[in-house]
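Page 42, continued from yesterday. The earlier attempt failed because a stray header line got pasted into the input along with the sequence. Redoing it now with the clean sequence only.
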Amino acid sequence: MKKLTINLFILTSLITLMAGCSAPKESDNNVDTIQTFLENEFTGPNDELTSAFKQDDAFPPELEEYVEETYKPLVKNWEDMVNTNHILLYQRMAYENGYQLKPTDINITKDQDLAYEYEVNVEYSKDGETNTATISGRMNLNDDGEIVSIRNVKDGGLLKKLNQ
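This time it went through. Structure tokens are written below.
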């Protein structure tokens, strides 16, 4: 009887494990998309982006190429996101004022179908001095897993601090 109980336990555990592994994890893909977006938005600016920002034009071809490579796979319409300052706002401000950004902690929680709350702790450093700010907001994705809107952004004063 004891051996049967152990075998049933092992069998049940294996079935549960296999079912968990084969179940689709759509929300994980969405979380990965948001995570990648936030990492891109709050890391740098790197050499490629710095070079693009140095160009005379407001949106030179180098910058457009960078945005297409970095953000196009993540967002529905990168042009709208750029025009509404949801892409590169913090990177540009960091570049213009000599700061480097680095996310130290990113938390993403599913709120509703295709709606996620996020919170990012960002280090911003300049001249050997490092401070942190917490940015939070809400992102909505479409059925294809692309970010379609970013709302309710609270940046913990980061833009103001980067402008000093």
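Notes: The beta strands are 100-112, 115-126, 129-141, 147-154.
Reminder to self: strip header lines before submitting.
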